[in-house]
Design brief:
The structure is a single chain. By secondary structure, this protein is an all-alpha fold. 68% of the residues lie in helices and 0% in strands. The N terminus and C terminus are likely disordered.
Length: 483
């Protein structure tokens, strides 16, 4: 195989055509089992790194370092360095928390649900999505911990036996988040790691240097590729997929309960669980497209991650955009239909009040711009879909901002109203969280197989077992045996 730069200059091949007599290929080019392994394995096996990767990693690591420094400054100084005030006690940290939890939902959907429904187009993108899920949940878990103020008491949220005889308050929504995110993180890491074991064993067997051979051998858990190992692997993978599937609905539903169980106008509504889940899948698929378009270009993976994969994900984005837009309309309708003047004022204030700019940014990015995916050219042109996905992520962040800030800044008593103005520290910590995310993602791209080699090989023509010739060969003996 050629270098990554050579492969990345290959022209795009459109394999999105719809032919009722035959399915378009999921892997392009003259690939067999060996070339798929070579295409994916050459990236972590490369002795050095490219200049583009070094520059990207330097920027991401610098932003992550900035986040760590600002977190230390927060611990020393206090949460007064944020823009939080009364009554907006929840600001950027909870906005960022809900945003990052939502980003991780596409990984579970692509990996678990599409696996259970035997959607073979997931094979080239599930590793991307699973990794994105893990890294997004890492970023999400930071913000509730530092938002409590006295972070050295955050261990009180954990239900462990202690000599003080003090147990967590299980009626607190903050504790629900601990269990939801903790469960989601555990299952996501197990699912991601289990799927990588056969590929880690492949890298172990191909490694020529002692340290990579040792590390890949350690984490491949003695995988030999025997029939017994494959049997156990497939059973465990199916079990984890079935276990992870309910998490798509449950985790972000629990996050939505942080708001829905309160009496704040704009929050106290039963539509929040399905609304939050649809929005999470919406933003998650947008982030997968955002990461995958440049990754397949720079690492030479166009033959494995084809336009058909991107086209299918863009259709998911279009469908969930309608769900999110429908939720926006239903919220306004229910505020009017309920006859509750506080609810109605909240939604009028969102659209026409001091934060109207954020509300209409949310509507344009989440409802209007994704409609471009009705056109096939937009769904199959990488730079167009990448820009649309960026706008979707911006819109989903603003959705969380609108839900949290506009509802808190205008509560029941006009005498307690106050505008929320984020500080420079708020913005820098938001940017720093992206630095943590991209630092982890770049390390994943460099040292681990980005594409599931073992799963991609199952969709190659060579993997299809043909029984016809075998049946013809054994038919006479079986007939004689029947007689």
């Amino acid at each position: 195989m050629g270098s990554a730069s050579t492969i990345s200059r290959q022209p795009e091949v459109d394999n999105t055509m719809s032919d009722p007599t035959s399915r378009p290929p999921l892997v392009l080019g003259q690939h067999d089992f060996a070339t798929v392994t070579e295409t994916v394995a050459r990236i972590p096996e490369r002795p050095g790194t490219t200049l583009a990767w070094k520059l990207s990693f330097a920027v991401a690591a610098s932003l992550a370092t900035m986040f760590v420094v600002l977190t230390g400054y927060l611990f020393v100084t206090g949460i007064g360095i944020w823009g939080n005030n009364s009554p907006v006690f929840w600001g950027f940290p909870i906005v960022n928390f809900v945003f990052w939890v939502g980003i991780g939902h596409a990984g579970t959907l692509i990996s678990a649900i599409l696996f259970l429904f035997r959607q073979h187009w997931r094979t080239s993108i599930n590793r991307f999505a699973e990794a994105m899920t893990v890294f997004a949940v890492v970023c999400a878990g930071i913000f509730p911990a530092i938002h409590v103020g006295r972070v050295w008491y955050v261990y009180w949220l954990l239900p462990y036996p202690n000599p003080m005889g003090m147990w967590p308050n299980f009626r607190s929504p903050l504790l629900w988040d601990v269990f939801a995110v903790g469960t989601y993180m555990t299952v996501s890491v197990l699912f991601w790691y289990l799927g990588m074991i056969p590929d880690l064993a492949t890298l172990r067997d191909r490694a020529t240097r002692p340290l990579p051979r040792l590390l890949y051998g350690l984490f491949s858990l003695g995988w030999s590729g025997s029939a017994r190992h494959w049997h156990r692997f497939e059973k465990a993978y199916l079990f984890l997929a079935a276990l992870a599937t309910p998490l798509v609905l449950s985790v972000h539903s629990v996050v939505s309960f942080d708001f829905a169980v309160s009496l704040i106008p704009g929050w106290h509504t039963t539509i929040f669980p399905p609304y939050f889940v649809a929005g999470a899948i919406f933003s998650g698929f947008a982030m997968v497209v955002t990461l995958m378009v440049p990754a397949r270009e720079f690492f030479g993976l166009k033959d494995l991650v084809t336009l058909r994969h991107l086209d299918n994900m863009n259709k998911f984005i279009l469908a969930t955009s309608f769900m999110v837009g429908y939720a926006y309309l239903i919220e306004v309708f229910m505020a009017w239909y309920s006859g509750n003047k506080y609810e109605l004022f909240t939604f009028i204030n969102r659209a026409l009040g001091p934060y109207a700019w954020a509300y209409w940014t949310m509507v344009i990015c989440n409802v209007a711009i994704p409609q471009l995916f009705w056109f096939k050219k937009c769904r199959t042109t990488p730079w167009i879909m990448w820009i649309i996905a960026i706008f979707v992520n911006i819109g989903m962040w603003f959705e969380r901002f609108v839900i949290i800030v506009t509802s808190l800044s205008r509560d029941f008593l006009p005498g307690s109203w106050a505008l929320y103005k984020p500080t420079l520290i708020d913005f820098l910590m938001l940017i720093g969280s992206f630095g943590i995310f991209f630092t982890l993602f770049l390390l994943f791209c460099r040292y681990l197989p980005m594409v599931a080699m073992a799963e991609v090989k199952t969709v190659l023509p060579q993997a299809q077992v043909h029984h016809r010739h075998a049946a013809e060969e054994h038919a006479p003996s079986e007939l004689e045996y029947a007689r």
